[in-house]
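In response to the reviewer comment on reproducibility (Comment 2.3), we provide here a single inverse folding case reported in full, input and output, so that an independent group could reproduce the run without further information from us. The structure tokens appear first.
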């Protein structure tokens, strides 16, 4: 990682650079703000708050996406509060141990890495649930435990993720189709909201264990079996969507309808009918039968 050290105390700057270089960091020293503004990007900026006659906010503004640690001699609004509001990550007071500085750097490295992972996972979830119907619920009105009955598990998954987001909750996802030891998981997560997915895959004996567990703690269960029952809140999320998962089996008509609806804007009729193995006339007839209109 590239580290910019903006410090006019050259001995301190060189000492930090030497010790950080030993840990694998690539360091560059700047004695003034002007020198510090020459390069476009650094992963970490160690910025002195005591640069005579210098406006260090120029450094903060330029490297606001980097980890910025302010090197200060005393604590005040000017040296701590205001710079943090402007985008500084943290501060360290001189004199300091290099180990404490490294700890702060690594802490924020991990923090930014987790932020990146969270953004990536959220983007993936948004993509994954894109085909699912929008949920128009007042999530605060739901009481746990809850059984969700649905025709597609993805609909229940979407509900649980949106529910947790709306109420700022974390939860433990437990896919019961993977034969997990749900009793041990529940025991090891006594205060965590549990989400048991694919309840329909269990034997009656195991279903009863989870239903009994639900009477003792907050959890959510999802099932595609419309005959499931429970002595607590039940939510039905049933749609007529024809979007399907890789493990679903559709009728030939449903499959052809799905392809026509989702790909007719991407291919001309000649190519689409060829890919489906039917004639253009047959494609026209199927549109008419399925009541599918092609945009012009």
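Designed residues, in position order:
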């Amino acid at each position: 990682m590239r580290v910019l050290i903006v410090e006019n105390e050259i001995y301190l700057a060189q000492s930090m650079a030497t010790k950080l270089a030993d840990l694998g960091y690539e360091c560059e020293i700047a004695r003034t703000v002007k020198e510090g503004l020459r390069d476009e990007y650094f992963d970490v900026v160690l910025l002195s708050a005591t640069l005579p006659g210098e406006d260090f906010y120029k450094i903060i503004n330029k490297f606001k996406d980097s980890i910025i640690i302010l090197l200060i001699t005393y604590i005040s609004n000017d040296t701590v509060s205001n710079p943090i509001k402007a985008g500084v990550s943290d501060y360290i007071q001189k004199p300091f141990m290099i180990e404490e500085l490294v700890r702060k750097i690594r802490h924020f490295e991990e923090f930014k890495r987790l932020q990146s992972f969270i953004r990536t996972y959220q983007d993936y979830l948004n993509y994954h649930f894109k085909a699912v119907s929008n949920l128009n619920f007042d999530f605060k009105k739901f009481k746990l435990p809850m059984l969700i009955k649905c025709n597609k598990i993805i609909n229940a998954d979407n509900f649980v993720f949106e529910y947790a987001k709306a109420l700022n909750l974390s939860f433990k996802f437990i896919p019961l189709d993977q034969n997990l030891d749900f009793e041990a998981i529940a025991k090891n997560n006594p205060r965590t909201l549990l989400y048991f997915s694919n309840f329909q895959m269990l034997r009656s004996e195991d279903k009863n264990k989870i239903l009994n567990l639900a009477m003792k703690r907050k959890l959510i269960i999802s099932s595609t079996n419309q005959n499931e029952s429970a002595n607590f809140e039940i939510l039905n999320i049933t749609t007529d969507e024809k979007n399907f998962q890789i493990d679903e089996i559709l009728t030939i008509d449903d499959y052809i309808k799905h392809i026509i609806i989702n790909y007719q804007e991407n291919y001309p009729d000649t190519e689409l009918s060829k890919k489906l193995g039917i004639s253009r006339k047959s494609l026209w007839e199927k549109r008419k039968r399925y009541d599918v209109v092609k945009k012009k």
